[in-house]
UniProtKB/TrEMBL annotation:
Official protein name in the record: Transcriptional regulator
PANTHER family named in the record: BLL4672 PROTEIN (PTHR35010:SF2), BLL4672 PROTEIN-RELATED (PTHR35010)
Spans traversing the lipid bilayer: none
Gene3D superfamilies: 3.30.450.180, lambda repressor-like DNA-binding domains (1.10.260.40)
InterPro entries registered for this protein in UniProt: Cro/C1-type_HTH, Lambda_DNA-bd_dom_sf, MLTR_LBD
Organism: Streptomyces caniferus
GO molecular function: DNA binding
């Protein structure tokens, strides 16, 4: 499959259409119209009315005809479409109305952060960039998930491993939710880093090789989870439920520190046994 970076005009058009079609007209105080609705969601003229722009403007945006909406218009569209905060941020990224970092994406762990990951023991910890490349990890995380040292650096990517690695494919009890949330994060990162060829290549490979990824990617769900819950099916200690936190250092905002904690007494005991092995 050909690798491509983000065509922001096309993606903006598709995103606006999908969000418009997901809305329920009954949730809006709009004038009643007699004609039967042929498509789901709001009509273009209704979105135009709610956003305070012309119908032609909405048509041109949804047809990717070269418009670059101002920050004010993007905000009006976000309100009209009732976008969640992470969806609003995605829309601003697509419209290229948010400042972007000039530095290249991190491909190695900042030394202070690598030391911090090691110091997190006995809590499992790892460091990733926006692509889900795993840059550093401690022994507890390796015992819980996978010995990343056995992999070539190019394959130390959490999304690729979850889709392609036999051990990681079976790791999560609620695999669909975990993968869908990961895809939703990856799409947000894709819009925020439209020139990242490596990220575009990862998405192209996953789309070509995994039917579920391709189907869920096409749904254009967006989310950025700073914390959450997973249940891991570990071959040595059984099921382990963990809470996770994702922290972004101010000095290195492209790097994400991920920390796992046992979610209950049984899981904490399982982690203790695992770390003692």
């Amino acid at each position: 499959m050909t690798t491509r970076t983000v065509d922001t005009a096309q993606e903006l058009a598709a995103f606006l259409r999908t969000r418009r079609e997901r809305l329920d007209p009954q949730d809006f105080d709009l004038p009643s119209r007699r004609q039967t609705r042929r498509t789901p969601g709001l009509r273009r003229e209704e979105v135009a009315e709610l956003a305070g722009v012309s119908i032609d403007y909405i048509v041109r945006l949804e047809q990717a005809r070269g418009l670059r909406p101002s920050a004010g218009v993007v905000e009006a569209l976000a309100r009209a479409l009732r976008l969640a905060p992470h969806e609003r941020a995605y829309l601003f990224d697509l419209a290229q109305q948010r400042p972007r970092a000039a530095d290249q994406p991190a491909t190695a762990a900042a030394p202070p952060l690598a030391r911090l990951v090691a110091d997190l023991s006995p809590l499992p910890g790892m460091l990733m960039n926006h692509r889900y490349d795993i840059l550093a990890w401690n022994g507890e995380m390796a015992r819980l998930l996978l010995d990343f040292d056995t992999l070539p650096p190019a394959r130390r990517n959490a999304m690729w491993l979850c889709l392609m690695h036999p051990q990681m494919r079976e790791l999560y009890v609620d695999r669909e939710r975990v993968v869908r949330e990961g895809i939703a994060h990856l799409r947000a990162a894709w819009a925020a880093h439209p020139e990242d060829q490596v990220l575009a290549g990862l998405i192209a490979e996953c789309t070509a090789r995994d039917e579920e990824f391709a189907r869920w990617w096409a749904e254009r769900d967006i989310t950025v989870n700073g914390r959450g819950h997973k249940v891991i099916r570990h071959p040595a200690v059984g099921e382990v439920a963990v809470h996770f936190e994702v922290l972004m250092p101010l000095q290195d905002p492209d790097q994400r520190l991920v920390i796992y904690r046992g979610a209950d007494e049984a899981s904490r005991s399982a982690l203790d046994r695992l770390c003692a092995r």
